[in-house]
Amino acid sequence: MTTQHKSRTLTMAQAISEAIGQEMERDERVFVMGEDVGKYGGIFSATTGLYERFGKERIMDTPISETAFMGAAIGAAAEGLRPIAELMFVDFFGVCFDQIYNHLAKNTYMAGGNIKLPAVVMTGIGGGYNDAAQHSQCLYASFAHMPGMKVVVPSNAYDAKGLMVEAIRDDNPVVYCYHKGIMGLSWMSYFEGSTNEVPEEAYAIPFGKARVVREGTDVTIVTLSQMVQKAVLAADLLANEGISAEIIDLRTIVPLDTETVLASVAKTGRLLVADEDYLHFGLSGEIAALVAEHLDSIRLHAPVRRLAVNAVPIPFSRPLEQHVIPQVDGIVAAVKAQLATPIGL
Amino acid sequence: METTSDRLLWMYRTMVEIREYEETMAKVYLEGKLPPKIQKGLAFDIGAGPAPGEMHLAAGQEPVAVGVCAHLRKEDTVVGAHRSHHFAIAKGVPLNAMTAEMFGKVTGLGRGKGGHMHLFDPEHKFSCSGIVGAGAPQACGAALAARKLGKDWVAIAFFGEGAANQGAFHEALNLAALWQLPVVFVCEDNKYGISVEKGDSTAIASNADRAAGYGMPGVLVEKNDALAVFEAAGVAIDRARRGEGPTLIEVKTDRYYGHFQGDPETYRPKGEVKELREHDPIPALGGVLRAQGLLDDARDAELRDAIKAKVQAAFEFARQSPYPDVAEAHQHVFAD
Hints:
- By secondary structure, chain A is α/β, with parallel strands linked by helices.
- Chain A has helices at residues 12-26, 50-54, 66-78, 97-104, 107-110, 140-145, 157-169, 226-240, 258-268, 283-292, 318-324, 328-339; strands at residues 7-10, 30-34, 59-61, 82-89, 120-125, 150-152, 174-179, 196-199, 211-214, 219-223, 245-249, 252-254, 271-278, 305-309.
- Chain A is 34% helix and 20% strand.
- Chain B is α/β, with parallel strands linked by helices.
- Helices cover 40% and strands 11% of the residues of chain B.
- Chain B has helices spanning 4-30, 62-69, 85-91, 95-102, 135-148, 167-178, 226-241, 272-277, 281-291, 297-320, and strands spanning 77-80, 120-121, 126-128, 155-160, 183-189, 192-193, 196-197, 218-221, 247-252.
- The mean pLDDT of chain B is 97.
């Protein structure tokens, strides 16, 4: 009999809950806390089926007390357990951020490395489904801005599983951001590219390794999360017009794979950052600065361009929301504009 | 600490040690911070001297630390707040590494990166935080871990009366009671949140009454007395260890110094501290020990000399220790 490594097509939500379940079987120190993670299986299905398998002592529904359970995750992690705390919407970080950025992120440092806090903060991000300004943000760059947290932002089921396994096994705080619009939920339209082949066995994807989703020669599109799926559709349209776009899926922003980004931009000479987080003081500026700092070894053929949410809260009304969040046609237009705008002087 | 007399002696000795530590720190802290050695025009320079930064001392509040910690084992967790030297000492955190931390030296508990409000000693299961109220949820996590690991360990959250108006406190109480966690919440009512009197910040007289809102016992210790705290804490900790859930204890205690060193204390009635010091809990417990034949002048002097030497040695260790290499600033953001 030969061992066969099977894979199936899974949604991102299924891949995440499978990863958590396999790690819980492998390591009894792993447990989940959060709102509606138990009988409901997670509002965005990240823990579906786990309550039935592991029971309420390991899949723990909490009161709507994010400060209490984020703090409890810190206390439990300091004792050697490996909690996964789900913050239902990343937008809710405001009610518990002290525990996250003042404690979870800093205690290892302030202890001179004498304590480890192996905790995963798992959270739903992103808009596009008319949930308005308090339930639609990405905010991953806000976590990445502050030291002490690894920040993971998968774009598809295969990566989601491998990155969750890595997150659970990591000895550090990891903020794991899943975009609601690629989870493959039965009640929210999603980008089908995010549902893909996932091996049955557990596997870990190392942090800090971006994925070249598609090779190209004319422009580098640096992106992540749901925007990867939009970029793929945009690249198809661009290819029809003879434009070859390379797509880099960052997968993690802390650590950031600067090498892959720089190598690609050095090759194409054009950089477009497509991001669903806020434009200013954020991820897109960080990538642009990275390239600017390496202009001794990179020759740009066009100015850097950035697509992101431009200094407004996410509006509710559908046409407004679709306008402020970068879309496929916006990516296409931005690339074309870059090709039409060579470096001056 | 097998017998009651052992515990009584330990409490006395530890209170003396805490007091000696805080009084020594109060002096050392001022080194280099006063005119004429500082920038012209300043009355005080917080960032100068061997122990720079904020300094919150706990002299007067010793009964809370020893009355609770006398019941603890090494495996039990203590989470303190910004004013935590007394808890750290009572939990067994080594003075040398603790003092070096407050001096920012590489031999400190956190290699000089935490400072006096952020002391972490995983071996003695002690930590504290400069954020008011933040420790209560973390103590719940330690208690949850104890239960998950099948141990009869308990966790103590120490905080001031000001913290009882933080959301974190209320969320933690509800969670602890809901999950019946082996945690004891110990509120030190030293009357002031920095300058604001309790009556000007808190809608009810006793925070112990708030326990009823979460279905847990609430106990008010009305005297700044080590034995009274010892008794109340014993009941609560035994209960927690037996798996019967959390307790909230409030202790009326006294803060002899300002909120931080350098605090002008203009909000405090004149003579208040003098009056408080007339009820010093250390000679009070000493009297009890003497009445039981556990202490006499000779023994007291011997014990105080030994403590003085130990504290002096810790400060000397901190002074002599090197600062971390600046490259260390970039280390330990993440665990290896």
